Amino acid sequence: MRSFKVAIVGFGSVGQGVAKVIASRNGIFDEAHAEFKIVAITDSKGAVLDPKGIDISSALKQKREGTLKRVSMSSLDVVKNVDYDILVEVTPTDARTGEPGLSYIIEALSRGKHVVTSNKGPLANQYKMLLGLSKENNVKLLFEATAGGAMPVFNLARTPLAGNKIKSIMGIFNGTCNYILTRMITEELPYDMVLSEAKELGYAEADPTYDVEGIDTALKLVILANAVFGMDVKLDDVDIVGISSITLDALKLASDDGYVVKLIGEVRPNGEESILRVSPRLVPKTHPLAVQGTLNAALMQTELAGDIMVIGKGAGSIETASAILSDMMYIASSKD
Amino acid sequence: MRSFKVAIVGFGSVGQGVAKVIASRNGIFDEAHAEFKIVAITDSKGAVLDPKGIDISSALKQKREGTLKRVSMSSLDVVKNVDYDILVEVTPTDARTGEPGLSYIIEALSRGKHVVTSNKGPLANQYKMLLGLSKENNVKLLFEATAGGAMPVFNLARTPLAGNKIKSIMGIFNGTCNYILTRMITEELPYDMVLSEAKELGYAEADPTYDVEGIDTALKLVILANAVFGMDVKLDDVDIVGISSITLDALKLASDDGYVVKLIGEVRPNGEESILRVSPRLVPKTHPLAVQGTLNAALMQTELAGDIMVIGKGAGSIETASAILSDMMYIASSKD
């Protein structure tokens, strides 16, 4: 049985989800002959530390009542100084700078610690550098949770499709947009009304720009482009059109012709002619990509196996926590 | 760079596909730092052997002109005596006995050789015994190609969903049935006519019983039940209803209500109440499982990640070869 000390930085819904699952059912890791012990949890204001293993229910209680206890150490201090094997970096995404997650990841990798993250910012901004750092220090940098939550895109590309060249990836990577587009056409409601409703239901943020203008999808696409295809691109390299100017009339016209409109992210490496774009596109209603509601879907064109698609929940704290756990299991079951 | 000597037993379309891919583009395996060298190929009548690596184009030429050269060794002799690291067992499936593949697999595992197979018969009949044998001899027995060709079901269950309990699997595991059912309703043609057409197009065998009566789907379900859920079931344990008595009228009625009819295999372990069945079932047209044509689809209900679906080509010699290669890559990248 190998034991891994885990530090969780960021204690929002995803961080809490990871902590809960680890605390409640360590037995599910038996298969990997691994044990995970959480030795540090931090949020933006405080931290809880215990080298013998944190009492999760007490940490969750502190969080319910506000923030974690204030301590003299900042999150960065914890990342730099505490003794752990895996950093679970689940702080909020900053699309432009990648901070503060970027600094945490750099510090952890430099110290020779594995990193598992759900944070798109650092990867979209500095993938190449971070990958280099992880290789240099002979540790893993895993980020299944960054593109499509519970939908195992990177995992699929890493193992099951190994040796089978992936030519392109296109898909629906934002549940908020998919919910809005689905709801508009099935209920025949205008964009603004559905957006308000989505906010009320928690499917859209108070400021939905990040989702509806296609930035979230573009970040995921950048990570896929760099990680799966070895490209070296940034957010500014993506052609982005969001869904905010789509009218119900346009959706109806498409529907009459047998199509639905979906916000599609597509990456297709081809040197100077590479495609890297996010835009609303027509999808035949009978096509497997025409998934409804908040679902995400990714279609991989492969050389030998034809088209392979994976569909799953793109968001949700438990689903995202599940992707993080899957990465932790991968580390635990790796032999190096 | 690790080098693996490969013996291919069965030189039909799948065996030839594997040989072609290995011969033509060994470079694709660079990522796994592995090299595969084919040292033996056998079919039911003859064999080609060369410890330094077989000239594939010459073997393919022999095959085009009839069978491989007759030699004094049978396939079983080759499996028992030749020096190889991985046996690729791709002989035809016998649902009831699993032979001759079963004997080949037993011999190879007993000799401490890895086995990769696309043959459903041996696994559906003797999974538990074969798994025991592989563990005893510390080698891998992999069979991604058995359930849904290029659709990576086992791989998905093995790594990306590790640590995330799978509660049930249901899906479309037979492209022939899916083609027939899709074509009947989209073209409004009766079963017999579509079946004849499917035979002409090569989507159905001259004797289609195995596919249309649900036996193929049931075999795949048995392998999933045993391999993913650790059950110990056989073909006789599956409740099977095929599609041969489905009428166009029934499909039309379903369609009017917003449903399509699909031949669904479902496994849901639950002790005495376990479900293991193959039957035509109604699927809402908007449900991701409502895939058309010859596509296969599998929906996994998971505890943490919700429903995850994978869609892919279920048949085709290159697609099946691709699944076999993926398994070979997995062996090459494993550290034990």
TrEMBL record, chains A, B:
Ranges for domain Aspartate/homoserine dehydrogenase NAD-binding: 10-144
Catalytic machinery residues: 220
The keyword Lipoprotein appears for this protein: no
Pfam families in alphabetical order: Homoserine_dh, NAD_binding_3
Domain named Homoserine dehydrogenase catalytic: residues: 152-329
E.C. designation(s): 1.1.1.3
Gene3D superfamilies per record: Dihydrodipicolinate Reductase, domain 2, NAD(P)-binding Rossmann-like Domain
Xref: InterPro entries: Asp/hSer_DH_NAD-bd (IPR005106), HDH_cat (IPR001342), HDH_CS (IPR019811), HDH_short (IPR022697), NAD(P)-bd_dom_sf (IPR036291)
UniProt keywords, alphabetically: Amino-acid biosynthesis, Methionine biosynthesis, NADP, Oxidoreductase, Threonine biosynthesis
Coiled-coil annotated residue ranges, if any: none
UniProt keyword rRNA processing present: no
Binding, L-homoserine: 205
Residues the record lists as binding NADP(+): 10-15
Binding positions for NADPH per the UniProt entry: 120
Associated pathway: Amino-acid biosynthesis; L-threonine biosynthesis; L-threonine from L-aspartate: step 3/5; Amino-acid biosynthesis; L-methionine biosynthesis via de novo pathway; L-homoserine from L-aspartate: step 3/3
GO molecular function, one term: homoserine dehydrogenase activity
Alphabetical GO biological process terms: methionine biosynthetic process; threonine biosynthetic process
PANTHER family: HOMOSERINE DEHYDROGENASE
Family, per entry: Belongs to the homoserine dehydrogenase family.
UniProt name for this protein: Homoserine dehydrogenase
